Amino acid sequence: MRVKQDATPGFVSRTWFTPVKEGTWEIGCSQLCGLGHYRMRGEYRVVSQEAWVRWVTDEVERLR
Fold first, then answer.
1. I want to staple 40 with a disulfide (CB 3.0 to 4.6 A). Which of 8, 16, 29, 61 is the partner?
2. Is the pTM of this model over 0.85?
């Protein structure tokens, strides 16, 4: 699952792709972008539709 998306510290970036399996992966900056390059890390999770609905429902309840 390869996706290239620009990331700016302090901002949320979104992208769209079709995953092929569930799991959690670390992502890192793929371009030498400056002094903070080595700290630009994140993670993405691929979950089942049921887990996604459960998470959304829990978040809505939490925010009430």
1. 29
2. no
